[in-house]
């Protein structure tokens, strides 16, 4: 899709996943047994044939850069175009921009050199399998200046207090942002905008001392811009807190949610790691769980998600938990409602129990 370039804007996303974002940004948090949160939006872009994609990141991006590399896993290691990771390395002494507008101002070359005439801007906290090609066709068909993406979903409002809502009129035009708890139109932090208009609005916002493009540049001009809306009805998980991360992870254990996220006709891409199949040793018991490659299971695993290379020794019991890469759970240890980050060793006969609404979380590389 040569007419559309992409920006994954991580600058405005808060690191609200507790111990999981102590050492990484939210976009790099593992999810679903094999993936990182950024994999879903990046795969959606690649599946829409987008070949010019930038990632705006400001802090704790080492893990993200290690995961993305040169974009080869997503077929974005191009001579021209491809994947651009753009951290805040700016040296313009005349720059007066603030907030996320600093990224748009200081990375203006990305837009100037790109061949596309429209830009898709999104984040990483909304996990979906949205068809961006369909959204772009809707944008072109309606001849809109801006197309915003939302989901009509009242249940999201009760689970995520940081969500934003859109006010949409009878013609499908987005007229304002709202904090009304009764508004079911959940804004997915995703929109398509004409590139020339984007750059004009960036300059206008900077000249007025503003910080945010969508709120200060687009929605404040809703009376003069043609802002249409696109209603997305597929799988959506909003990962903006530890409880939401845990709850959405547990939902993947249902056949319906698993199929919606992972069994799409279009591929879900991530960094490739060659590991052997999981080994289930004599006496092991596994029920209703997702296990990635490279695990060795001797104990019991129920209603849980295990990432690559997890070892569960005999007599260990894991229930309703998320266990990330290369963790070791030794003999006799019991885990219920627990999230273990990477490279954790739990020695023999330990017991960790969290609550359904508030899991017990252990930051990575600890020995307990």
TrEMBL record:
GO molecular function, one term: glucose-1-phosphate adenylyltransferase activity
Every Nucleotidyl transferase domain range: 20-150
Ranges for domain Glucose-1-phosphate adenylyltransferase/Bifunctional protein GlmU-like C-terminal hexapeptide: 283-357
Family statement: Belongs to the bacterial/plant glucose-1-phosphate adenylyltransferase family.
Broad EC category: transferase
InterPro entries: ADP-Glc_PPase, GlgDAde_trans, GlmU/GlgC-like_hexapep, NTP_transferase_dom, Nucleotide-diphossugar_trans, Trimer_LpxA-like_sf
CDD domains in the record: ADP_Glucose_PP, LbH_G1P_AT_C
Keywords: Glycogen biosynthesis, Nucleotidyltransferase, Transferase
Protein name per Swiss-Prot or TrEMBL: Glucose-1-phosphate adenylyltransferase subunit GlgD
Entry EC number(s): 2.7.7.27
Lineage: Bacteria, Bacillati, Bacillota, Bacilli, Bacillales
């Amino acid at each position: 899709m040569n007419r559309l370039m992409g920006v994954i804007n991580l600058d405005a996303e808060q690191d609200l996943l507790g111990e999981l974002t102590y050492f990484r940004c939210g976009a790099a948090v593992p999810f679903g047994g094999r993936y990182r949160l950024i994999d879903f939006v990046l795969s959606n872009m690649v599946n829409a044939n987008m070949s010019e994609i930038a990632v705006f990141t400001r802090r704790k991006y080492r893990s993200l850069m290690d995961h993305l590399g040169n974009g080869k896993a997503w077929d974005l290691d191009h001579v021209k175009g491809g994947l651009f990771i753009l951290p805040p390395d700016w040296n313009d002494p005349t720059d007066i921009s603030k907030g996320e507008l600093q990224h748009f101002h200081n990375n203006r070359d990305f837009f100037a050199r790109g061949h596309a005439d429209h830009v898709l801007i999104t984040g990483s906290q909304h996990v979906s399998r949205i068809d961006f090609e369909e959204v772009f066709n809707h944008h072109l068909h309606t001849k809109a200046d801006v197309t915003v993406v939302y989901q009509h979903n009242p249940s999201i409002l009760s689970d995520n207090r940081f969500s934003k809502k859109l006010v949409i009129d009878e013609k499908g035009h987005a007229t304002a942002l709202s904090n009304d708890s009764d508004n079911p139109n959940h804004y997915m932090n995703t929109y398509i905008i004409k590139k020339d208009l984007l750059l004009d609005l960036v300059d206008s916002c900077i000249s007025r001392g503003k910080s945010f493009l969508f709120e200060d540049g687009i929605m404040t001009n809703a009376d003069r811009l043609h802002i249409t809306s696109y209603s997305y009805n597929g799988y959506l998980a909003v990962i903006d807190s530890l409880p939401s991360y845990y709850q959405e992870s547990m939902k993947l254990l249902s056949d319906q949610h698993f199929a919606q996220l992972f069994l799409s006709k279009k591929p879900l891409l991530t960094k490739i790691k060659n590991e052997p199949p999981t080994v289930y040793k004599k006496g092991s018991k596994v029920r209703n769980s997702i296990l990635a490659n490279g695990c060795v299971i001797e104990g019991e695993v129920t209603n849980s998600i295990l990432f690559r290379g997890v070892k569960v020794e005999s007599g260990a019991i894991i229930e309703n938990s998320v266990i990330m890469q290369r963790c070791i759970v030794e003999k006799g240890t019991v885990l219920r409602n627990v999230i273990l980050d990477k490279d954790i060793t739990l020695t023999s006969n330990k017991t960790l129990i969290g609550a359904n609404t508030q899991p017990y979380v252990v930051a990575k590389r600890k020995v307990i």
